[in-house]
Amino acid sequence: MSEAPEPTAPPRLSGLKALRVYRHPRVTAMLFLGFSSGLPFLLVFSTLSAWLKQAGIDKTTIGMLSWVGLAYTLKFFWAPVVDRLAIPLLTRLLGRRRSWMLLAQCGIAAGLAGLSLHAPEDGLSIFAWLALLVAFSSATQDIAVDAWRIEAVGTEYQGAMAAAYQLGYRVAITVASAGALWLAADLGWRVAYLVMAACVGVGVLTTLVISEPAARANPLSAEQERRALAWVEAHAHLPKLLRDIGEWFVAAVVCPFLDFFSRIGIRTGILILAFAGCYRLTDFTMGVMANPFYLDIGYTLKEIAAIAKGYGIITQIAGTILGGVAIARFGTRRTLLAGSVLVIATNLSFATLAMTDDPGLWGLGIVIGADNLAMGVAGTALIAYLSGLTSASYTATQYALFSSFYALPGKLLMGGSGWVVDQIGWPGFFLYTSALGVPALILLYFLMRAEPANSPSTAS
């Protein structure tokens, strides 16, 4: 099958025009949906790891428990269900995207409330299952929110939507990290997690207020789906149940993959997926051990809350806004390149912090500020890049595929982060995480050469 022509890239904006994209009403709504997506994330990762550390759980076990986050990575398996399956009554009342958002938010609230009723020292089994419920529900919410974000506005606003999402996400990260740590220090971990469960109400309210985006499709995707379904119809000898299952599977799972590779090309498509898988390796492998690192070198929970989580979020918000403006001004691939270099450099600064006898709060603040600025730029660029690759016919499934690919390698390596620290120490660990960013730079070079210049995702 020949490749479909690439759509024309949106024009780059200059000066104040690059900032005005943030005034769109749905861009504003994206702030709150970003908060809803970001809230559960650290509550099953670094914040949870601090609770486990204080409960006396060893670092290797802490790292292994982070594997509950594989739900975020494997979400493309059930993304076709979110893309096409209607929830009885709820979908008729709210629409396809909002109904799945609401159902997922209920699961997140239930899981966090359940965690508040259990302590890790009482037994990790139930604790781990509740954490998995939160991660699974959160991943499902991400599928629906990502689809809404891409479908709600045109291509010219996707950079701003990505930045707004990241901004809301980072505010939620502050609440779920600094806020939860502060509450835990004064009132205990159980109260902290119960308050976090109540904060899920922000997402619920936003879901009820926003409107459902209009469903869209493109002729190429419709033609591919007709061809795939024709193959199913040719197997009329099969029992009806098997034919129904096969028809659903081809339409919901096979066609999104065919659509992506037919539009992009097989070689470029594989290169894109490999690049996405490498781009956030440094962030994921370092992130789960951040709080244990801060505690090991002598910082208290309140100092971590104030500097690493409170002040740090300000610089990450700045990086997020800067990333959105940079995309509008310079294009996505240049912003991707800048973000990748910054993340590598800032992880090297953590190695310096680990080798300093008494870095103090100023040393922590400088390193955290630089790292969060870099993550804000890199995260916004990657979201905008992957969003520009999706088809309107398979928004949820294709974006779930992309986001799963960018998370899978990092999540797998994340589980061994504690073991790496035990083997080579903190300075060596941060040299290791910095080196993990190099493959993304190499792949980005080849990707920039392979992708057509008029692609909206690669405009420079």
TrEMBL record:
Location within or outside the cell: Membrane
Superkingdom of the source species: Bacteria
Transmembrane segments: 27-52, 64-87, 99-120, 167-185, 191-210, 270-290, 310-328, 335-355, 361-387, 399-420, 426-447
Keywords: Membrane, Transmembrane, Transmembrane helix, Transport
Main location: membrane
Pfam families named among the record's database cross-references: MFS_1
Native organism: Banduia mediterranea
Listed InterPro entries: AmpG_permease/AT-1, MFS, MFS_dom, MFS_trans_sf
Membrane topology according to the record: Multi-pass membrane protein
Protein name (Swiss-Prot/TrEMBL): MFS transporter
Gene3D superfamilies: MFS general substrate transporter like domains
NCBIfam families: 2A0125
Major facilitator superfamily (MFS) profile domain segment(s): 26-452
